[in-house]
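Aim 2 progress update. The chain analyzed this quarter is reproduced below.
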Amino acid sequence: MSTVTRLVRTALDLAAAGVPVLPLRHGKVPVGNCPACTRNACGGRPNMKTSGPCTCPAPCHAWAAATTDPAVLTSPAWASAWREAAGVGYHPGGARLTVVDLDTPDAVAWAQRNLPATRTVPSTRGQHWIYQGVMRSSNAVRPGVDLKSAMAYARWLGPGVGSITALPDTVRALSARKPTIRPAPQALAVPAGGEVCRHRTPTYLERGIAMAEQKITDARSAVHATVYRTFLAVLSAHGRCGCLTDAHMERLFTAAQAKGESVRHCTDAWANARTTLGL
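Predicted structure tokens:
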């Protein structure tokens, strides 16, 4: 059986079970956006908080491309994507699931001590713990731990072992406790004269985030450096007044991951930029 045939068969089996799937290329990143959706022409990029896929005929938009439609999965439009693919991804939130991605042995040991037992799947460096229920996805909630559910994708690594249990409050609390970008001691939330911080106007902040997303998306080389410089610019402009939210951060991370950056690279670049600025 060829690799393409095996991947498509796996995708069809998952789709039949109600799990939305998409092709992933090497590096566990989605196949690139189709030309019709360049620069968000269709309005359906997942980092714009859409609720599902756009109507273009090819795989695009990371998690929002995931589908359970066998006609789409086997369509000519997706054939080239499967030839490029190295694995099958799925949208946990679309299947009413949450994946606790444990990326190190220490993270696995922490989960064994603190989280209810559920279905586990071995990964390259650790395990995926899968729970029944949907929540907001969040990266780096603690060392070596990411949460993948709504508006996220995970790599299919096999059925795993054990019974899936209900999403516990202990997992939901991980996201709730995730640090947000807070004002530094020299924050200027209220400029001189008592005016409202300009970053809180939708146009100013939205324009800055959208421009940063586009800068990352347009990078043709030196992606690592571009991502870092873009994060640095965003934090320099908006990081000291407390206006940035997790949602803004996730939009930037999504754009970077679409260019092949890993979650860990994104997290390190963001942390390094904050350190450089003294935040």
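The longest strand covers residues 97-102. The two ends are 53 Å apart (CA to CA). These observations will guide the mutagenesis experiments scheduled for the next reporting period.
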